[in-house]
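Anyone else keep sequences and structure tokens together like this?

Example one:
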Amino acid sequence: MEEVNIFVRGGVYLAKLNPSKYDEIGKLRPVVILTSQKILNAIPPLIFICPLSSKSHKDFKYLHYEISARNKLEVTSYALVEHCKSISIQRLDGTCLCILNQKELLQITKNVLCLISDD
């Protein structure tokens, strides 16, 4: 029987983002889970994530959010809000690298809203 992982909102996990198309971010990389915990508890087939990178592009600095290295997240990383997307939960590795605090998660969420809002 296959073990079922319950993932945590704000948790950082490795995800297989290949194949990527055009300017999409790809490869095996850390991602922050943004899906609500209530939905995660139901073990959904798709989850909403924000990829992390060790690099931030200056043109998107207002959208990117810096996350300091901690626990198993070995380098300072940037949440690349413009690359947020839904992926299959099966693309995730079950090992949690770290968990973001509420302030960090709130700022990433605000940055997502900036991406889709005209305000």
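And example two:
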Amino acid sequence: MSRFVEDIDRALKAGRLKSRFRPDDVRRACRGWADHTYGVFLPKHRRGNPGGYTVYFERHTDGTYSRV
């Protein structure tokens, strides 16, 4: 599993992230990653991604994500 996903999981468990989050929420809760990571990683690894990448997230109609 990706270290970035592990950071997100830790932030969820610690309560630094709510169950539904946006890239900026992840940026505040999981500091230290390259700036573009926050905006690219979530959609790239969402359910139904066109590239067939490993699915870690569900994207909701309001633009938030949750961990699957």
